[in-house]
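Subject — a protein and its fold

Tokens — whole-number codes for backbone shape
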Amino acid sequence: MEVRDRIIQAARKSFVLFGIRGVTMDQIAQEAGVSKRTIYEIFADKGELLLACIEYMECDMEKHRQEIENSSQNVIETMYRHSDFHIKMLEDFNPLFFMDMQKFYPAAWDIIFNKFNQKKYHDIKRLLQVGLKQGLFRKDIHLEIATKVLLEQTKMAMTLDMLKGGKYSRKDIFNNLVINYIRGISSESGLELLNKYYK
């Protein structure tokens, strides 16, 4: 494995477990098995390293997205597997990761937020179009409105405010916000599949 990749993976692991601000470059160097000087020869500062970690995570998520969509039998299964993957992934993150990014690395946060909005909008719209062709969604839905509603509900389900104190799990929030809306736009055959996956 290349030194750069080792540093990125070590930083990603540390940031996810402990947040960003509380992790030092010395700790990352130790985790990666390199000197701190080596890190600074490749990355100007922690912010640049964080952006590299984000890019790595985006590539990993895109790989999983393609694998899920290529192996799913229908769009309901695709949505179920997507949500299951993202919920499990986010549960591994220390909330400080997102809090630190918003407060101390706003440029990185803006990049994530903007990319999420653009990519997720197109992903949701594409899945709705596939679902319509498969007869799993009602033909009378307004595609643009449904896409925007699902995008906003997905973002809301992933916010931290509702998760504080551990009163609600990400899965419960997601199911109540997003899946209930999908039920409302599903055809009878779509509802049968939803009931199969979301028991």
